[in-house]
Amino acid sequence: MATVTESTTISPEMANRLFLRGASPEAEFGDFRDDLQRDGFVVVKSAVPRERADAYAEAMYKWLEDFNLGYKRDDPSTIHEDHLPVINEKGMVFGYGVAHEKFTWDIRQEPGVVGAFEKVYATEDLVVSFDSVNFSFPNRKDLKANKPWAHQDQDPEKPGFRCLQGLVNLLPNGPDDGGLIVCKGAHLLSEEFHKEFINEKRIWAWTKEWYGFTDAGMKWLADKGCKWEKVCMEPGDLVLWDSRTPHYNVSPAETSTQPRFATYTCYLPVANLTQEELKGKKEAFEGVEFTTHWPNLPGFGGVPFTRLDGKPCPHNFKVPRSGKPQLTERGYKLTGIPYIKA
Ligand SMILES: [Fe+2]
């Protein structure tokens, strides 16, 4: 593992303009940041070069096949939990150390991915989340339905632009294929919305940094003229969204034959983390733990999950199959560890 030899300075003044003044609907940057401010999301094309995106997809297919449970990428009849690791109805994997697999970390360290966040936050001093991976297959009859679960990944009591989320798409992803759906422009209505809905009975959430839209909330968005848009992407594209932007993921339509592979990539400026939070990142990294998309929050060992027979997955393992992460110097800085003061 690389180490950082030179001293690293935290510069709170580097906090980006988006953070300082909140999102503005006015174009100002002449690049993807204008779309992000206006729409609450944007696709950064080819953030990962196609050749490497294809190699990551290959590694992800191999990861599934190497459980040796019978899954074969060319045989759709093997798309069943009997032949796969546990993947929930939303396509998420919360075990097997997948948050620290080699392909997950390699994607996090991709210059075009980190670079997009550097541009938005106007700093190279970033910390990355140890978030999960998505494998969504069409026509999975063995899983319960993935009902719409429109939400924001941000505490309504902490308004303003606070966090930029992202995911890297690894396979062709068209309108009928599963993927991210966003409520275009609704990030700019978030504060108004939460003032009106301050007394509503909330949908339960295990973290304050999550808000679920009720039917009344969905109607409010529709009455405001907000439209939901399925994000379509090519392999290697990165989608970025403001954590206030209402979103969820949809399963592939019945007409789709295309799996969806994606990894979640979210970064915050180091300056936004306390020393305690950075120490939490160290513990999470050394313990090969997951985090949510919030890069500042402590790690957890994964979400308890069982196979269809109700028993814990006997194939689960904490340390990734590829071993503990071997990072570049840039990757190691992204853990936040080098920014811990002695
Ligand atoms: Fe989310």
Automatic annotation (TrEMBL):
Signal peptide: none annotated. Gene3D superfamilies: q2cbj1_9rhob like domain (2.60.120.620). SUPFAM superfamilies: Clavaminate synthase-like (SSF51197). This is Phytanoyl-CoA dioxygenase. It comes from Cladosporium halotolerans.
